Amino acid sequence: MKTRGFEIISMYRAVGIHLPERKTGASTGYDFAAAEEVVIPPGDGALIPTGVKAYMQPDEVLLIYIRSSAALKKHLMLMNSVGVIDADYYGNAENEGHIYIPLYNYGKEPVRIAAGERIAQGIFTHYLTVDGDTAGSGAVRAGGFGSTGS
């Protein structure tokens, strides 16, 4: 039985995408890379495709953070501060659970993100719910960004 991990989404299987990985034994985060080149104009944002989806247990979440080098050297930040990938995002009908990294360029020059460039890191963790929580009783995720609030 699979407990947690990453897979390449179907449209990127022939492209040579690398699955996120930790670089050292003490690293907390799994590095995510851009699946294709994207240029972000100054004062603007873009959704960077990773070509990757994540599977996990129902009581887990994958939190996405900017890599410090992208923030310091390229003047980039996550548009939503911290990305939250829910367990039921995996395999959804709209986009297979494709993880996009929403980056904002707060610098004065365009920023080029190369295909294969590491831009963010993901950390799996457990979460808790309150007594009497009945969320999700039969509800099925239909999409991506903001879809749980619809």
From TrEMBL:
Do you know which Gene3D superfamilies this protein is assigned to? 2.70.40.10
Query: Which SUPFAM superfamilies does the protein's record reference?
Result: dUTPase-like
Key word Hydrolase present: yes
| Biological process according to GO | dUMP biosynthetic process; dUTP catabolic process
Top-level taxon: Bacteria
CDD domains, alphabetized: trimeric_dUTPase
Instruction: Write out the GO MF terms.
Output: dUTP diphosphatase activity; magnesium ion binding
Q: Which Pfam families match?
A: dUTPase
Domain (dUTPase-like): give its ranges.
17-149
Q: What is this protein called?
A: dUTP diphosphatase
Q: Which residues form a coiled coil?
A: none
Lineage of origin: Bacteria, Bacillati, Bacillota, Negativicutes, Selenomonadales
Q: Carries keyword Acetylation?
A: no
Enzyme Commission identifier(s) = 3.6.1.23
Q: Which family does it belong to?
A: Belongs to the dUTPase family.
* Reaction(s) the record says it catalyses: dUTP + H2O = dUMP + diphosphate + H(+)
InterPro entries, sorted: dUTPase (IPR008181), dUTPase-like (IPR029054), dUTPase-like_sf (IPR036157), dUTPase_trimeric (IPR033704)
Question: What are the UniProt keywords, alphabetically?
Answer: Hydrolase, Nucleotide metabolism
